Amino acid sequence: MPVFQETSHECRDFRIIPSRELPLPRLTPRPAQSSSSHDKHEVVIIGAGPAGMMLTLLLARYGLGDTLMCYDSKPGTLKAGQADGLQPRTLEVLKSLDIADEILNHGCHMSEVAFWNPKTSISLGQEWGIERTSFAPDVIVAARYKHEVTIHQGRIERILEDNLNQYSPNSIQRSTKFIDFQLDPAGDTDYPLKIELEQETIDGKKTRKIIRSKYLVGADGAHSQVRRSMGLELTGETTDHIWGVADFVADTNFPDVRKRCAIHSDVGFVMIIPRERISSGQYLTRLYVQIKDEVPAEESDSSDPLSRRKSRNRRAAITLDFIMKQAQRVFFPYRFSIKKGMEVDWWAAYQIGQRMTSKFSMTDGSGQPRVFIVGDACHTHSPKAGQGMNVSMMDSYNLAWKLAYKIHGLSPQESSHSFLATYEDERLKVARQLIEFDTKFSSMFSGQIGSDSSVKGLTHEQFLKVFSDGSGFTSGCGIEYSQGILVQTPAIENSYPIDGDDYLQGTLKPGRRLLDSVVRRYADANLRHLQDDFLSTGRFRILVFTMLDLLDPQGISSKALTTICNNTIPTFPQGSVELVVLHPFLERAFEWADIPSCVKDVAEMKFHGPVHEELYRTYGVNQNTGAIVVVRPDGYVGIISSLSDPSQAETYLSRCLVRVL
Amino acid sequence: MPVFQETSHECRDFRIIPSRELPLPRLTPRPAQSSSSHDKHEVVIIGAGPAGMMLTLLLARYGLGDTLMCYDSKPGTLKAGQADGLQPRTLEVLKSLDIADEILNHGCHMSEVAFWNPKTSISLGQEWGIERTSFAPDVIVAARYKHEVTIHQGRIERILEDNLNQYSPNSIQRSTKFIDFQLDPAGDTDYPLKIELEQETIDGKKTRKIIRSKYLVGADGAHSQVRRSMGLELTGETTDHIWGVADFVADTNFPDVRKRCAIHSDVGFVMIIPRERISSGQYLTRLYVQIKDEVPAEESDSSDPLSRRKSRNRRAAITLDFIMKQAQRVFFPYRFSIKKGMEVDWWAAYQIGQRMTSKFSMTDGSGQPRVFIVGDACHTHSPKAGQGMNVSMMDSYNLAWKLAYKIHGLSPQESSHSFLATYEDERLKVARQLIEFDTKFSSMFSGQIGSDSSVKGLTHEQFLKVFSDGSGFTSGCGIEYSQGILVQTPAIENSYPIDGDDYLQGTLKPGRRLLDSVVRRYADANLRHLQDDFLSTGRFRILVFTMLDLLDPQGISSKALTTICNNTIPTFPQGSVELVVLHPFLERAFEWADIPSCVKDVAEMKFHGPVHEELYRTYGVNQNTGAIVVVRPDGYVGIISSLSDPSQAETYLSRCLVRVL
């Protein structure tokens, strides 16, 4: 088209780069950027695996990109990580950070599990072997993604780092080992942590240096040196089962190789985890193979040289060939081998063990938590239920916003110690559940299911029950944080607006995450995911389920909205509390002018209605009464109150945020 | 977990990078990489806008990354592009290249259109003004994405370039102007094109150089120098309507500002195009404002100095302020202004014109097309229907695989001239439709709808009809390429297996794109988008709709599959024809062993069933008869034949691909 006048503003040039979220408001002074500040950080993170990278990324996004540093002892991106499974809840969190797409597009989705057991009846001429007992959905709880995803851990780390580089390109320093730390408030009260590091140059020269920090987080894995420096250790029993694991392109006539499979045969147990497509166009398969030749626990821990040599020999016998031969025995009568001409991606042998520490943090003299550990530094366990990377990243996800609030001066002074302490309160409980679940789950896999179940122990039905009962935990969607300053469980009173208790299907409950739903935005009629209004930008949100009286200017809905917009939100720092509003009308039967004007002013693009009649019911809300829900920055419900009592939201928020009015 | 044995293969390290698709097989020798080859390319592309970038990206993905070069006269990424709309079909294509996510996540979705007209009745005390007549869905045809997306053109170019850099990081050379070309087969028969370029260094020095190429593509916009060198020009009439356009953050009480709106008032016409959210969290709005002060066509084209000065003065009077004032008159009684404190992103004034060239390519002495033009170099038109960037990129999408096939030696020697000529045949027709549609659409916008329609011309119903009738074209989903060597329209015979003619809702037809559907993959029970098996990797696909006899080893389905796997596919170069198979069974009532083994061998991960009963019916296929469909690399159907006659697919493919058997 012939343009004859054209004027463009320079701000337009920025519209071409990837979107970035705004940092959290900061009320405390920003540290001076002096030349000496290279050795002074607000947060130091040790370890750049999934947990450390997740924490660094979140803090950078919240606004701490210039004042944090993550150190990793290895010279390059981790390539040895063996975790590969992402739960539905982790996928929701990654989506809330806008980094889920590559994982969803290129990871392997696991929607269905196949259970195989020894043949129950043999016809004339048939061989013994295995048969499929049933299929089950992999995810039975309500979730935005009704499947798990498997993908190389190194790829997830690369995706996290790519995103980190958009917010803070120089936050990872490699080839640097953590040595020790000291709490030394005498030296510098603002930066009470003295941290000793050892840096290795390309020519192998090692130099020590001391840096200072306000906070230290150990994300340095099961052998965490930060944990050791805190005087903590992993405790728990090492069980006596040995497993082999291998990733490769399979050549097989086993029909369910592309599904997650639990295969109990008379000669042992195998688990199939289908993996992603690789660049050749072929698909990886991971096998977990139980090695029947057991190691007595006392032998492996023994200090007796003879016993240790026996143990070493036994372990050395476990080769890739050994693992594949055992797998082939279990798969009989099906063929199962490594595709000709293809190399095995990775294989390993390990012993199952569940261990954890008793504390996840350490306080300074005033009682303020200053040092934290996250991920494998806190808990190790078997890989069977695919929990490792998930629980680790979610530790960081729980800690990050709390740390940012404290440093930015957003959390109230009077509760800030206990505010930070909620990290340990909330995640220690999850770790205990993890250890308990994994112990049960692992021993179950090592148990035998026979055609004659009365003789051989566990029945298929018992197995299936543990699998189903664990789904809230294994999906990550059933995690519930208990009562504390950030979770207000309801008093037993008539005005509590939630009906029902089907929490795994979406019924709201303080301490649980807000389920996603598809809604229709009023302003533009677009279909939207409700969770997309709860992005991980560190903000609290007030979610108002208005009731059928919304169009009545004197109604309860109007009053609640007006109070929240005019009183509650302005009480707190600008940009720290957002409003999301739902209405119950299936049809567009009203105009902006018919509802309180503050909805358009404050939440024009966060005002939605149902696309089907179930919306309110899914959350346990009655459209004749409505509800007010405060959602924490991590997507977990903080408090639920009656629509006629908006003051409860303010009281709750006053414990989480400083008041500016 | 305590790992005591671990072995990792180096190939595993590559699993962390973004996925890349395999290039097309190449049968011709690859050009030697001599030092002089810098000035010799297989394809030279002029212009790095959306059309040129799309072509470069596609060719690089097909395997020509090392032997092509795209030159652009500007020193950096284009920032002045004003196109912003992506059609549903373009989104499907971007998805097939794995580059749609950022656009879908961060662009503005337009799902609904609001039509506003002069008030029909005025009560006592009310003012004249506008009222909403109706809403309509923005996309009424069946499509994977039931909305359009608006987003900054520069961002789309950046996304294309980011992806190009993964395949070929050095394919764009900037600050280089195309001067002229000559067809000079005498010099070098393999590289018959002599192309003259002018390069500008940072210090402004200009140097000329001559390069050689096999093919040349002009994607250099409406003022295309390549087109001029071909001796072609854009022809057509310039109509006499002037429009203003502006992008800004609006401050308004107009209720539908977040929807696409067509607003006819008694004082003129405005169109709202909602735009993406910007980093401040606010949303852009684009306004197209009709300027009533018309310019006679003869005046603007006149060589009379007085007439030209009048025209110039008239144009100079169109300022941003003028545009906004006119908009405000149309929006009355609603407020509509630029948000206080915000700068206008971009504004311009233009005259509507529809022009195109009569040819899109130029042949050498042997009749082989050697020079092509794509995008605005071929056709210019008004921006009203949001077609520009879409039709331009789709020109490249149509040309790219044909060029790659020719250069790689995949297309048969005997038909290769006509094979390449299909680009012009197919896209010239689309351009003509574009010009026709835009002429109708534009003049309709410039027409007036009055409360008393009999007096003022166009009624709202007439307007709506043009809008709806154009939906196949404006969505991009109704484009139909006509009969040619790549499109075999069916002979009228009894065995043609398609019922119905609701092509816009999915009924299959040669020349139209294959509609997406959600299907359930047999191997892993995952829900999949059928279009995800038709990625833009340059491959032909045979899509087999098996019938209810699939489990009968002597049935028609089994025979067709066996013939296709054992005879048809091996006839053509390895990796050039893929198989996708659908089955009609809602329940999983069979095992791999019950169907021909070649399905698992050839299409294990491309074998799907319905998730609802409508699947076959959507495509016009009867599950009692099935169908064989050959889909071109660009997703358009090439031929449809009876399941009992698989030889038709082979005959068709033999016109497109060389035979190796």
From TrEMBL, chains A, B:
Q: Does the keyword Oxidoreductase apply?
A: yes
Keyword field: FAD, Flavoprotein, Monooxygenase, Oxidoreductase
Entry keyword Flavoprotein: yes
Which residues does the UniProt record annotate as the domain FAD-binding? 41-437
Q: InterPro entries, per this entry?
A: FAD-bd (IPR002938), FAD/NAD-bd_sf (IPR036188), Phe_hydrox_C_dim_dom (IPR012941), PHOX_C_sf (IPR038220), RIFMO-like (IPR050641), Thioredoxin-like_sf (IPR036249)
Gene Ontology MF terms: FAD binding; oxidoreductase activity, acting on paired donors, with incorporation or reduction of molecular oxygen, NAD(P)H as one donor, and incorporation of one atom of oxygen
Q: Which residues form the Phenol hydroxylase-like C-terminal dimerisation domain?
A: 480-658
**Family according to the record:** Belongs to the PheA/TfdB FAD monooxygenase family.
Name this protein carries in UniProt: Putative phenol monooxygenase
| Organism lineage string | Eukaryota, Fungi, Dikarya, Ascomycota, Pezizomycotina
